[in-house]
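Summary of Year 1 activities. Much of the first year was spent building the evaluation harness for sequence design. The harness presents a backbone, in tokenized form, and records the residue chosen at every position. We chose the following record to illustrate the format because it has been used consistently in internal testing since the harness was completed.
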């Protein structure tokens, strides 16, 4: 599915529109990059899952300028924007078209993602995917996911999502408009509660940390234990 068909945003307009769609976008991305410091090994090879227009890849290169990044995305048009916006840093980034669920993941020191892993539709798929990530990471490597990670209880889940609706309401004509925008994503977005995310990561062989959280978003770090 293309970003245009899912978000009704042309890739060239994505960077402007995404801030209307997602609160805290500019805060979360540098926090994902900052969490690279949790790797218990030098970070040279990074995979960026759902690289999009390259905002996270750029943030990672600000933290680790000598890193090489593998940016994977299913939407070639998004990566064309990334290529343009990366400027001279494009030399450090290899852009790979395909689903991160299928593309073989190369051996690496860190795997990062911002606002992308909610596109994994079932817990079973996500569990299998986290195991593949663990297998690709060198010992001491980290998986860092910045995404919506609401509370598990129905009340907590609703409270967390309400923060998002309040943000959408500013642009899309109040709460009713916000709800319409959010509901339009329902067939392709699955927001897994934080507690479940942590469980999936543990089962895949990771220790976990949550270095940043502002409802409903969080940065969740999986730190490799020995092979699961
Ligand atoms: C909301 S955008 C986030 C892009 C970027 N990470 C950011 O923070 O701006 C989600 C991106 O994930 C990509 N994507 C979704 N599912 C994917 C999949 N299974 N494999 C590869 N890319 C995927 C989309 O094409 C899109 O570019």
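For this record, the design step produced the sequence shown next.
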């Amino acid at each position: 599915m293309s970003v245009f068909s899912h978000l009704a945003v042309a890739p060239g307009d994505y960077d402007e529109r995404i801030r209307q769609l997602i609160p805290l976008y500019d805060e979360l991305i540098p926090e994902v990059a900052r969490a690279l410091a949790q790797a218990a090994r030098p970070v040279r090879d990074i995979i960026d899952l759902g690289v999009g227009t390259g905002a996270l890849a750029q943030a990672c290169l600000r933290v680790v300028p000598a890193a090489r990044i593998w940016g994977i995305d299913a939407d070639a048009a998004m990566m064309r924007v990334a290529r343009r916006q990366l400027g001279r840093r494009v030399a450090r980034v290899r852009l790979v078209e395909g689903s991160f669920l299928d593309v073989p993941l190369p051996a690496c020191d860190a795997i990062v993602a911002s606002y992308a892993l909610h596109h994994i539709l079932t817990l079973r798929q996500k569990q299998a995917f986290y195991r593949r990530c663990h297998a690709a990471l060198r010992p001491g490597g980290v998986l860092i996911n910045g995404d919506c990670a609401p509370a598990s209880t129905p009340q907590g889940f609703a409270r967390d999502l309400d923060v998002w609706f309040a943000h959408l309401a500013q642009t899309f004509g109040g709460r009713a408009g916000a709800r319409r925008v959010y509901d339009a994503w329902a067939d392709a977005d699955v927001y897994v509660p934080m507690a479940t995310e942590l469980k999936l990561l543990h089962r895949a062989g990771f220790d976990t940390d949550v270095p940043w959280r502002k409802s409903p978003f969080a940065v969740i770090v999986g730190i490799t234990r020995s092979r699961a």
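The longest helix spans residues 154-171. Quantitative recovery figures across the full test set are reported in Table 2.
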